[in-house]
Amino acid sequence: MHKVKNKDIFKASWTYDKAPESTDHIQIKKQYDLFIDGKFTKPISAKYFDTINPSDNKKIAGVAEASDKDVDKAVSAARKAFKGWSTLTGKERGKYIFRIARLIQERAREFAVIESLDGGKPIRESRDIDIPLAANHFFYYAGWADKLTYAFPNRNAKPLGVVGQIIPWNFPLLMAAWKIAPALATGNTIVLKPAETTPLTALKLAEIIQESGIPKGVVNIITGAGETGAAIVNHPDIDKIAFTGSTGVGKYILKVTAGTHKKLTLELGGKGANIIFDDAAIDQAVEGIVNAIFFNQGHVCCAGSRLFVQESVADLVIRKLKDRMETLIVGEPLDKNTDIGAINSKKQLQTIDNYIKIGLNEGGEIYQPKCKLPKQGNWCAPTLFLNVSQSHRIVQEEIFGPVLTVQTFRTIEEVIEKANNTPYGLSAGVWTEKGSKIFHLTQKLNAGVIWANTFNKFDPTSPFGGYKESGFGREGGLHGLKPYVKFE
Ligand code: NAD
């Protein structure tokens, strides 16, 4: 049994001076057009919408809204480019993908600042995680482009054709990289749509794609909201849809593509279990809990949003977790000390606030640290819910914010049953000193990704994807090439 000692070890009341990242080096246009056939083109409808900075709700830029006709133009450009791109040698294709990777690296600071301005995530995360990982994805798949015969030995792998790719707002550039890099490596041409609240880094990526000299029409990036996404999904000349987003929209896409020739991969929502055994290194586990749920304001499909702690260490873990939460800095995304940035949109903040109310009404015991929240913008304090059970809505439904539910367990069988008792199956984490326990759990948990003694670690070489209502298909690694090829 662990004894509770060293009370309040984290409450050392550190204060930090402001450490704002400079914005001098970034260039954002007042208005962005659609990137079709290698050039920026005005939308046929002449309609534009605003992209907003969620830390003050002020407009950053106007962004074109693609109509059905614009989608059609983008698909035609991709179709026209397909023959040339798919018959280039793998080595040539790889050359362009390498170039894109290097150009992202060169402009990494600019990308990081724009990602934080447009999406609200802390600059430390966009600088150290999103942007380097996006570049790494292009580097990794550039390496595969001329090695497809090794990826699929004795099989003649051919590209599918024109792929439609739709991505969410939580990791805007990274999700674009996850989609574009493997599709290019395998010889497909692309129409990609970023989310309506975070289009800027995808449009910056379009500038890089132009600069890379890749043949025109190979990558088309068009902006808009759900209607534009639906026009991509329903376009008859698209051969594959790759979608990352909510389970609700995923179900719609599954329905409308059923019975068509379109191939489909769906990366959807999650409600990951993070399991702490009594033999775990407790301080590391507490840090892991924080990283699992408060990283990127909890806007993470694979977030560890359900914590399960073995009963004998529950008091200790919860006390240490509360102490650690007191030190988290919530605020200005561009400040290098910030741990938790702005909630991505007013709408998402309403969703999270609503779930907090539901949790309270269901009898959950709430804990939030005494952090100061800025007056303007969209903010949510890191939140724990104790005294909850499996039937509570906040335990079952994806909140997609910095809200953690805490439950306890006694036996390994009990925690496996509780962890699997959800419609989702995307991620899980296990904290224990015992390797055999880790192997036992990884066999039993229904999750596409399971971390051991860590959480939210991503690597381009490693496949990622879900089971059940978290979707199907894998992105990353060798597995990530397969959804973009057919065998002849
Ligand atoms: P969302 O489904 O509302 O939107 C995702 C994208 O789909 C956006 O680009 C949106 O414009 C578009 N879209 C909306 N309606 C559409 C329609 N009818 N047809 C086609 N496209 C449409 O999701 P969101 O709120 O932007 O993102 C959050 C969700 O994404 C969460 O559920 C999260 O778990 C999930 N997500 C999953 C993964 C994963 O890899 N499994 C990764 C990141 C996010």
Short description:
It is built from 15 helices and 20 strands.
Q: Would you mind describing this structure in some detail?
A:
With 488 residues, this protein is of the alpha/beta class. It is built from 15 helices and 20 strands. The model has no long low-confidence stretch (mean pLDDT 96). The chain has helices at residues 68-87, 90-106, 108-119, 123-144, 148-151, 172-185, 200-211, 226-234, 247-257, 282-294, 311-326, 346-361, 393-396, 412-420, 435-444; strands spanning 31-32, 34-36, 39-41, 48-53, 58-64, 157-159, 162-166, 189-193, 219-221, 240-244, 263-267, 273-276, 306-310, 365-367, 383-386, 403-409, 427-431, 449-452, 471-472, 485-487. A hairpin with a 4-residue loop joins β4 (48-53) and β5. The strands form five sheets. It has a seven-stranded mixed sheet with strand order 14-15-16-13-12-17-18, with helices on both faces. The longest helix has 22 residues, at 123-144. Bound molecules: nicotinamide-adenine-dinucleotide. The site of nicotinamide-adenine-dinucleotide has 29 residues, from α8 and α9.
